[in-house]
Amino acid sequence: MSRLAYIDCVGGVAGDMLLGALLDAGAEVEVVREGLSALGIDELELRVGHARRGGLDAARVEVVAPGDQPPRGPAEIRALIERAGLPVRARERALATFARLADAEARVHGIPAEEVHFHEVGAADAIADVCGVALALESLGIERVICSPLPVARGLVASAHGPLPLPAPATLVLLEGAPLRGVEGDAELVTPTGAALVGTLAEGFGPIPSMRLEAVGAGAGARDLERAPNLVRVLVGEGEADRAESIRPVSLIETNLDDLSPELIPDAAASAVAAGALDVWTTAAGMKKGRPGVIVSALARPDRESAVATALLRSTTALGVRVARLERYELEREWRSVEVGGRPVSVKLGRLDGEVVNVAPEHDDCVRAAAGSGQPVATVWAAALAQGQRWVGERGAGAAGE
């Protein structure tokens, strides 16, 4: 079985609402505060209280940060997150969320992603919301996220660029492939930060999946709404352990290239990952007229197929991509931590029918531990692997961390 979180967007979703719901469901607030303090943003404070929305009690999260926050670009935000030393899965989730935000803003404004300067979503409170959600998911040991359909309304919202139509343009880009439900009113029910989080974290959208429910949390929005309680709920529990769940649908998206500079191929692969690809690889190939070329291939969940295809079309010289719908057997994944030379290294465990059959140290953690200890990366990797081997054969879902 795998740890599962279902996001129920009752009144919509925003970063602070989702963080509040996760904390209300049992995520440790001190774990989140400690991780946010490592971002190095002076005077950043996380306040957690309660509010009533539609007569229901919910956690209300507020991030207090110094005024006059400067606009930040993707590289600056990426550096903040990477320097913070967050747990590997939390770091990857936060980085992927901001990469998707950058790609969406770039598409809306017609500029390269690295030239994007975030205003609202680059402020300290949005950075704290994204990293806080990633840390809260890690505290709960969440491996899989599924989201409900999203309510959206029409109207106008103020922004640094002037009034924008609702749903905001970047929000619509971020929600490509997600089921939307139009509702009456003119409130911004799904914010760009909320859309980026659910678009990045959720492996799919739909009804509540089969699960053994363990906890429910509710996070409140900033104001009351007339049409529905302004809150988001998170249902936490164990997903069903049916073997059939290890066979999951994927889309294979590919294109042949013979006129793209090799220097740009890693950037194309990175854009596919930012769009939600599970894996990306390249294969050398002989093209027409005897030209040497490369095949760029990406795997994605069906709901991310369109976004990944678009990313490849935008970042390469391809005039088209081909798609094949496949299924693949997947191990359940779980993260644990070991220490090598006094430094933490995350280890990914793969389970088959509940039994650990695969152990893999996180390479980036090994690099950091090696730099701090003066040991070769290979030595740190081998030591972490040796410690992780004690879990081989272990049965049961286990915890996501120690």
List low-confidence stretches.
397-402
Query: Number of domains in the coordinates?
Result: 3
Mean pLDDT: 88
User: Given the C-alpha coordinates, what overall shape results?
Assistant: globular
Structural class: alpha+beta
* Distance between the first and last residues' Cα: 18 Å
Number of helices: 11
How many extended strands? 18
CA-atom Rg in angstroms: 21 Å
Largest sheet: 5 strands, mixed
Taken in chain order, the helices and strands follow as EHHEEHHHEEEEHEHEEEEHEEHEEEEHH
Fraction of helical residues: 25-40%
Biggest sheet strand line-up: 9-4-1-11-10
* Range of strand content: 25-35%
Keywords:
402 residues, alpha+beta, Alpha-Beta Plaits, Ubiquitin-like (UB roll), five-stranded mixed β-sheet, four-stranded antiparallel β-sheet, 11 helices, 32% helix, 31% strand, globular, disordered C terminus
Compact description:
With 402 residues, this protein is an alpha+beta fold.
Verbal overview:
- The structure is a single chain.
- The chain contains 11 helices and 18 strands.
- It has 3 domains: 3-241, no CATH class; 246-329, Transcriptional regulatory protein pf0864 domain like (Alpha-Beta Plaits), CATH 3.30.70; 332-391, Roll (Ubiquitin-like (UB roll)).
- It is an alpha+beta fold and 402 residues long.
- The chain has helices spanning 15-24, 29-37, 74-83, 88-109, 124-140, 169-174, 192-201, 265-274, 305-315, 363-373, 377-388, and strands spanning 3-8, 45-53, 56-64, 144-147, 150-152, 155-157, 164-166, 180-182, 204-205, 211-220, 231-239, 247-257, 279-286, 292-300, 322-329, 332-340, 343-352, 355-361.
